[in-house]
Every structure is written in structure tokens, then in C-alpha cells.
Amino acid sequence: MQQRPFQQVDVFTATAYLGNPVAVVQRGEGLSDAQMQQFARWTNLSETTFLLPPTDHKADYRLRIFTPYRELPFAGHPTLGSCHAWLAEGGQPKDAHGVVQQCAAGLIQIRRQADRLAFAAPPCLRSGPLDPELLQRILRALSLRPGDVVDHQWVDNGPGWSAIRLACAEEVLALRPDWALLQDIKLGVVGAHAPGGETQFEVRALIGEGAGYEDPVTGSLNASLAQWLIATGVAAEKYVAAQGACLQRAGRIFVERDGAGQVWVGGHAVTCVSGSVAI
User: Fold this and answer.
1) Which CATH superfamily groups domain 3-120+266-278?
2) Quick check: do 3-120+266-278 and 132-260 share a fold?
3) What is the pLDDT of residues 43-80, one digit of tens each?
4) What does the pLDDT look like over 20-34, one tens digit per residue?
5) Class of the CATH-defined domain 132-260
6) Which of 5, 13, 37, 47, by CA, is between 20 and 30 Å from 240?
7) What's the CA gap between 206 and 2, in Å, rounded?
8) Is residue 113 within 8 Å of residue 119, measured between CB atoms?
9) Of residues 29, 47, 71, 170, which has the active-site annotation?
10) Residue 209 catalytic?
């Protein structure tokens, strides 16, 4: 076994323990796929990441992202948390204007915004309305009627997200999922808050892996939701989403579409655990 630098970073919050934690293993060279997966299963967090030297000369580092069950090509809060940890360990970007992360989904641009980081939302791999059979499963799992769903869409940018939009944030927060019926579904649910508040949308991420669970704050989902909501005129080009209230978290996701049409998804990150781990 080798001692490797390790951090546990809370993402999408400026206050520790109110966001979504990610386990970050620095210097992941020499670890096999099986060892990475075993460690991710042991941490039992939604994601565990491993920082490696890049194989693309444009990148600053390479990232591998694991859930307790499988490897992901891309995920949002692990991207921000891992970048935060890499910078904290003395990582020096090749370009002073930002960081370039290499992962299975390709090269991800990350920019530094005062006390926040933001990643460039990758394009969706699948879009369009949900299949009728899948929508029916979702309705049953959430005890919804067809008229309760204002809109629905595939918003898959790698992890496999589907999404529904409800009339308001209160309806989103009131959902009580039947996890058995959500098996194998990765679902985002979004609804608008009343105008004038701190946040404009409430988001929940319901994941039917294993026994099923709710993710506290989800970067990849918010990235593809933003592309959908802004493109359809439901959201402004700059807004803040809330996520995690049902889990006693207070995640805040800062979304902005720039003049070139690129959507950026940002948030704060706080290191909560720092040390080394033997793998």
C-alpha cells in the first residue's frame, strides 16, 4: 500500500457540511480500475475521484470519477471539488485564465470566479422528450398525475439524466419517491421559486442505483437542466438554483450563459478533511 494525499471537499456551499462531499485521492498513479472502484465503494460517497497526470497536452490534470457502483465519464460536483483540491495542493494551471480537466467525457474548462469555481457545461449526449413508458414509471414512482408534469426532457450529458419540470418549488420539495419504482432511473426534478427570492429554482436528483438515494447537490444535472431551461425561455441567462433541502443541506448552484452561448455552472468549495490515505 502507498500513502497518497487525500481530501474530502464539500461542494456547492460556502459553509462546511451543507453541500455535497467528494473524496479526492491525489497521485492516483499505479492504481488499477478494481482498486479505484473498491475504494469508492468503501467511501460510500456519491462520488470518489482520482487525480492523475494528463495524457492530453492541453490538460492540467486527468480525473477519474467513481460512484460506489461504476465509473462516470463526467460529474459536476466532483469536477469542482477535485479542482479545488488540486489547486490547494499547489497545482499550477498552464493558462492563468483557467484550469483544463481531462476526463472520459473529454476536456472540461474550469474558470476561477473570485471565491468560486465554475465548469463549462458539456453538451448533452441525448435530448428530446422522455419515452412514454419511462414517463409513466416516473409518474408512478412519484405519485404524480400526468397533468402535474409541466414539461419533460432527456438531459443526459454523460451520467444518464432524465428530467421533469413541475409547476413550483413547493411541489418539488413535497415529493416522496418510491425507490423500487425508480430502479435504474437517474431523474432530475425542477420547479421555480416565487419571484424575488435568493434562488430561482429548486432541484432534486433522484438516483435509482442500489437501494436508491437522493444526491444532495448535483453539478452535471444542473448543467444540463440549465441548458434546457435557458433554451426554452423558462430561466434567465443567469440564475441561482437551490438543492439539498430535503437532506438538510443548503446547496447553491450559480448558473450563467455567456455571450458565446456557453453555460457555466459554479459554486463554492470547502475542504473538510485533509490528510493521507493508504491504498
Assistant:
1) Diaminopimelate Epimerase; Chain A, domain 1 (3.10.310.10)
2) yes
3) 999 999 999 999 999 999 999 999 999 999 999 999 99
4) 999 999 999 999 999
5) alpha beta
6) 47
7) 36
8) no
9) 47
10) no
